[in-house]
C-alpha cells in the first residue's frame, strides 16, 4: 500500500513522467486524449415516431453516423468549446422527409444525451 | 543529476513497479488471421488463422474480471490484423462502455476513410501503423505490391485526426537501412509526429532470412541516426523498448530500458491464453481465460516475468551490465532459454569496434 501511494506521488511529479509513460514493443502509444460521447434519439416532431437514416455529423470533423431503426445514434468526437451537431435527412423521401436541424453544445464534457425532434418538410 | 544516482533511482523504481505489478496495458490478440504474409512475421499468422476469432463476450468476461482498473488502463487490439474482424467497432464500443480506453495496431491495408470514421465513432484513441520502408522495400517485406499505397492512405487519414495519438513503426532491416533518411523526410512531410524503429529478431518467418537482420555496425549506425534526428525535434523518433542499448541508453529513448512484460503489460491471446506481449514465446503462457479467472492469474502468477533471475544464464550469466538489463526484453527468450536470442549491447559494441 505504501509503495502504491509513493508511486502515485512520484507519478504526479512532472519530471518523472517519462518513467510512467510507456509503450509495449509492438503496441500503440498510450491514449491521453479527451473526447466527448454523444448519443441520442431522433424522432418526428409531428408523430413522435423514431426516424431511421438521419445523418448525424459534427461540424469541422469528418465523423458522421446514420440513425438506426429506433432513431438512435452514438459516437465519440473531439472536444471543442462549441460543438455543433448536425442532423440531416440524407435519404430523400425514404423514411419520411424532414427539415435539417443543428444543435450547438457549449463547453461539452463527458457524455451527452440528445433527444432530437425533426419537423416535417 | 549524476548518471550513477539517476541509475540507482531507476533501479529502485523498477523494483517498485515490479512489486506492484499494476496492469496498465492489456493486449487483446483479437484475431490470428492476417491479410498479408510478411517476411519478418514473428507470429506465423496466415490468411485463415489457426484459431477462430475469439467471441467478444469471452474477452469482455476477462476484462470484467479486473477488479480495479487504473486511470491509464488501456486495451490494445492486435492480431493478426484486427481490421479483418467486422465487429471491431463493436468491440471498441463495448470496451469504452466499461470506462476503458482502446487502441489498435494495424498494417493499414484495410484502413480506408470509411473505417477511419467508424473507428473514431467507436472511441479509438491511439493507433500504430507499420511502414517498413519506401515503396519497393516496404512491399518486399510485406510481400504485397499494394501494401505501400494502402499504408500511405492510412497514414494520411491518421494524421488528419487530432484525436488520435498515433505513431508509425518501422522494422529496420538490411534492405531499408539506407532509406531511413528518405523515410524520415517522407514522414515529416506528412506531418507524422512519432516514429518508432525496431530491429527484427530471428524468430518465426524471420529466423532463416539473413537479409532481415542488421549487423553490429548497422545497429550502431541506426543508434547514431536516431540520436541525430531526436535532436532535430521535428518528429519524436525513438528506438523501441526491445532491448538494452548500453552506451545509447537515454539517448535513443526517453527513459532507461525496462521490459514491462508481465509487470504492467498483459495479454489475452487468440486462443484465450494469458500472457504478456504477444510476441513473447508461448511457452511463457500463464493460464487461459477459458479455464482461469484472468485477474487472479495476473495477480498470482507471472513469476518468470517478475523474477527475472532465471535469465542470468548463458552470456547474461557473466555480464557486468546484467543489473541494468535484466536479460534484455522477454521476447528475446525463445526455444530452450539457455541463452538470450539477441544482445543489443553486444551488437552495438561490435559496431563500435568495426
List the helices and strands and how they pair.
The complex is a heterodimer of chains A (121) and B (354).
Chain A: H1 2-11, H2 17-20, E1 35-44, E2 54-58, E3 64-66, E4 72-78, E5 82-89, E6 101-106, E7 111-118
Parallel strand pairs in A: 1-7
Antiparallel strand pairs in A: 1-4, 2-3, 2-5, 5-6
Chain B: H1 3-20, E1 25-29, H2 56-64, E2 74-78, H3 88-97, E3 101-106, H4 113-121, E4 124-130, H5 135-142, H6 147-159, E5 165-172, H7 180-190, E6 194-199, H8 216-232, E7 236-239, E8 265-268, E9 273-275, E10 287-288, H9 294-300, H10 303-306, H11 314-317, H12 322-325, H13 344-353
Structure description:
- The complex is a heterodimer of chains A (121) and B (354).
- Chain A is mostly beta strands and 121 residues long.
- Helix content of chain A is 12%, strand content 39%.
- Chain A has 2 helices and 7 strands.
- In chain A, the strands form 2 sheets. In chain A, strands 3-2-5-6 form a 4-stranded antiparallel beta sheet, with no helix packed on it. In chain A, strands 4-1-7 form a 3-stranded mixed beta sheet, with no helix packed on it.
- Chain A starts with a helix and ends with a strand.
- Chain B is an alpha/beta fold.
- Chain B has helices at 3-20, 56-64, 88-97, 113-121, 135-142, 147-159, 180-190, 216-232, 294-300, 303-306, 314-317, 322-325, 344-353, and strands at 25-29, 74-78, 101-106, 124-130, 165-172, 194-199, 236-239, 265-268, 273-275, 287-288.
- A 10-stranded mixed beta sheet of chain B has the order 7-6-5-4-3-2-1-8-9-10, with helices on one face.
- In chain B, strand 6 (194-199), helix 8 and strand 7 form a beta-alpha-beta unit.
- The longest helix of chain B is centred in the first third of the chain and has 18 residues, at 3-20.
- Chains A and B meet through helix 1, helix 2 and strand 4 of A and helix 1, strand 2, strand 3, helix 4 and strand 4 of B.
